[in-house]
Design goal:
Layout (H helix, E strand, L loop, with lengths): L3 H15 L7 H8 L3 H13 L26 H12 L11 H10 L1 H6 L7 H10 L8 H12 L12
Helix pairs in contact: 1-3, 2-3, 4-5, 5-7
């Protein structure tokens, strides 16, 4: 595996070889650099689009997103359905559903699928929606140790609360 410094050197060599040899095919350049045809195609395209003297062009681009995905909390239909499931459990659940059950039912909801909204993928997102709506009280830091101790002793310190 080549290091980033080695790849930068290969990209610089590609830029240097492509200028005096415009008649070379991508495969010729790939053979000269011991790289793949697709690598040469991708980097030649990037090099031609950029300033010829820009050094930063030789650096790789991050594959990470540049903008975060839209927040689930900004989609009122999803938030409303999560709260409805919490307040009126479907299918005679006979208990107050937690984030795991709510996530299950949200993904089975045909109305949300037809609306084409982005659905939550984790229980953490459901917890955040329930906390913002006041359905789940956040544990104050002073009580966090008490909660951990009670849980370790086999008791359940958490009460189920309904949204008002």
């Amino acid at each position: 595996m080549l290091s980033e410094a080695d790849l930068i050197a290969k990209r610089a060599a590609l830029r240097w070889l492509a200028k005096p040899h415009p008649q070379w095919t991508h495969q010729d350049l790939a053979d000269a650099l011991s790289m793949s045809h697709s690598w040469v195609s991708k980097w030649l395209q990037r090099l031609y689009q950029a300033d010829p003297d820009a050094i930063m062009t030789l650096h790789s681009r991050t594959p990470a997103r540049h903008t975060p995905p839209a927040s689930i909390a900004s989609q009122p239909a999803v938030v409303q359905r999560v709260l409805e499931i919490r307040l009126a459990p479907p299918e005679n659940l006979q208990r107050v559903p937690g984030p795991e059950a709510i996530l299950y039912y949200v993904h089975r909801d045909p109305t949300l699928h037809q609306a084409g909204v982005r659905l939550p993928r984790s229980q953490t997102t459901i917890w955040k929606i329930l906390r913002q709506a006041g359905c789940i009280a956040a544990v104050p830091p002073a009580q966090a140790q008490t909660v951990r101790t009670a849980t370790a002793r086999g008791r359940s310190p958490v009460r189920s609360e309904r949204c008002q």
